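Our preliminary data section would be incomplete without showing what the modeling component actually yields. Below, a chain of 417 amino acids is followed by its predicted structure, encoded as tokens that our downstream tools consume directly.
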Amino acid sequence: MKPQMNADKHGLKKKASREDAKTQRVDFMERLLEGVTVQWKTLGEVCVIYTGGEAPANSIKGLIPNDIYKYPIYANGSELYGYTDSYKISKDAVTISSIGANTGTIYFREAFFTPIIRLKVLLPKYDDLLSKYIYHYLSSITISSKKSSVPNMNADDVKKIIIPIPPLPVQTEIVRILDTFTELTAELTAELTAELTARKKQYTYYRDQLLTFEEGQVEWKPLGEVGDVRMCKRILKEQTTEIGDIPFYKIGTFGKEPNAYISQELFDEYRSKYSYPKVGEVLISASGTIGRAVIFNGKDAYFQDSNIVWIENDESKVLNKYLFYFYQIANWNVAEGGTIQRLYNDNLMKMKIPIPYPDDPEKSLAEQARIVAILDKFDALTSSITEGLPREIELRQKQYEYYRNMLLTFPNAGVNA
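Predicted structure:
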């Protein structure tokens, strides 16, 4: 009997409480396994284990095949190694990465491919054992590797792994249900990604239109007339720790997660004695990715001197948020210093920004606020989709894992070890 699932293109929604779900799980598994025997076998008993070798001589690297080199080559990682003109494996199969950081990672590969670099391939010995079932089951367990400087596992390690094998109709139903979850997740990801791309294009279009002015509509003023360039006091490496009180953002972690901290005492001292941004002022990356902007939210943090700077701005003339949006389209005049580009204070001070209605401060601020309000709406929509995408994918993945564990955890009764 097939399970009843409340599904739409955005995934499966759980309506029952946890206790109800447990009851439903037991009832469903009892119906699915009613009158059948689940056998527990080692992979060595039910599969041929093939180990990949060197890359074929007749092959090309990359993601694009051609008429001659059309059969994929897979190594231990998730990425495609390349293509060759023949194949070693002619059936759908499960692969297990067996050396390096990916050791124990499971993939399902469709027929006609070549494995290399010790990649293990599992080929069922019998027609009543599905490769896709093996894939889903092995994905639900942890496969341990040898403890050594380089994680690895050999064919004997793989052969010892024990899996439950229900009759073919049960395998087929389990695979159907779990594949449905996989397809729904892929469809949702594609839809949300397309929506995000469209919103980003729309946002970029309106931002560029709103910040592009006709001759005479604005006065282009250098940032040096808007405010002074500021930066935090220099922090020495020995003053930082890997854990601590106050996050210290370097150019590599600017706008991301910090990996260095300073003490509360040092922070309080430096914030009181030296330049420190006000809430709402716009921090700018002055090296690496030039001009990346982050609005300071006021949370206690410290920033790497010269690499992260800001304009100490008077909002009675120019709104911080207006500067933030303009920075996104600004053509920064940057100096080349070896392999690292740098935005020097002089470059920043000379960069000109458009000030609407410069002779009428009230009207100018109103126009800036209008532009900011429109862009805020687009930014909020784009950000919500950007943040929602990984959340939705994570939710679908958890739903898949829930049903996978439900379907692949067999009761003790009627099980032959």
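Residues 361-408 form the longest helix (48 residues). DSSP finds ten helices and 24 strands in the chain. Preliminary results of this kind motivate Aim 1 of the renewal.
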